[in-house]
Every structure is written in structure tokens, then in C-alpha cells.
Write a structure and sequence with these properties.
single chain; mainly alpha; Hypothetical protein af1432; two-stranded antiparallel sheet; 7 helices; 4 strands; 52% helix; 7% strand; globular; HD/PDEase_dom; HD/PDEase domain-containing protein; HD_domain
């Protein structure tokens, strides 16, 4: 799968997340729908970019916000698929995403906790400013996607994903 990112995307952001974006397992997120009209890959990229922008603006750890924002929904199953747990998706998927992220990438404890708390108030209270930003960015992006607004990186075809 080829992913083409426009030159308009800040190279500082790309430097932080490129190793994740290049990962074959992470790219599989493009095969899963998220919020009706987008993919989990695009949603995660939007959350990452918004979190990174906000973190820079508010003097937070922008790299941790970008990485945890990108990995917050790193699970490779559809919402309706049968799972080995009776736990609701809203509580279950952050744990799977955090475990997948820790298994696949070197993530910090701050990043792990931000992934686990991104569903607040349905999950644990975010413990860092970066975790709060990711939780807010996730809700902003999800709302925009549900209402079919093309936002952030999807707008203007700044990111184009094509199968190989």
C-alpha cells in the first residue's frame, strides 16, 4: 500500500511519525472503516496531526502527542467482530491499541497512558496534558468525520492512500 503525503505537511511532524507511517502492520488500518466515511488510518493521522499542532501551541511534548495520537486506535479488527471479551468496545480497544503499540514500537509510558485514556470519560482520566489533547483531538476529528467534513490532512488530498 502506497501512502503519499503532500509537501504541505510539516516536515517536523513527518520526522516524528514517519517510522510508524512506514510500518506494514500500521498501514493495514487503511482497510478498516472509522466513523462511517473515513478509514482508521486517516482518522489516526488526523488525530495525530491535530494533537501535534495543539501540543506545539501549548508548549507540551509535541512528539509524544503526535505518536500517541497516531497509535491511539492501532487495532486490526472491525468494531462488530466477535472478540474474546464481553467488555464494551469503548473500554476494550484502547487496551488493545496500547498493547499493539508497545509490542510494535518503542513507546514511552506517557504515550502508553495517553492511548489508554483517549476515550475519556468512558475510560481512565488522562494524566498528562498530552493525553488531554489527544482525547480532545479524537473527539473533534470523530465528530468532523461523522458529519462528513473533510478536515485537516484529508482536505485538499494532502494524504493519498493507494493499494499496491
Amino acid at each position: 500500500m502506497d501512502i503519499t503525503l503532500s509537501e504541505e505537511i510539516d516536515p517536523e511532524f513527518l520526522e516524528i511519525v514517519q517510522c510508524i507511517l512506514d510500518d506494514a502492520e500500521f498501514k493495514k488500518l487503511n482497510y478498516y472503516k472509522q466513523h462511517l466515511k473515513t478509514t482508521r488510518f486517516m482518522h489516526s493521522l488526523n488525530v495525530s496531526y491535530v494533537s501535534w499542532l495543539l501540543a506545539k501551541r501549548f508548549g507540551c511534548d509535541a512528539a509524544a502527542a503526535a505518536r500517541a495520537g497516531l497509535l491511539h486506535d492501532f487495532f486490526l479488527y472491525n468494531f462488530g467482530e466477535k472478540r474474546d471479551t464481553k467488555e464494551l468496545q469503548a473500554f476494550y480497544h484502547p487496551k488493545v491499541a496500547a498493547q499493539n503499540s508497545a509490542d510494535r514500537f518503542e513507546i514511552s509510558e506517557k504515550e502508553r497512558l495517553a492511548i489508554l485514556s483517549h476515550m475519556f470519560p468512558l475510560g481512565p482520566l488522562p494524566r498528562s496534558r498530552e493525553a488531554w489533547l489527544i482525547s480532545c483531538a479524537d473527539k473533534l476529528c470523530a465528530s468532523s468525520e461523522l458529519f462528513h467534513f473533510q478536515i485537516f490532512l484529508a482536505k485538499g488530498n494532502r494524504v493519498v492512500v493507494s493499494p499496491t
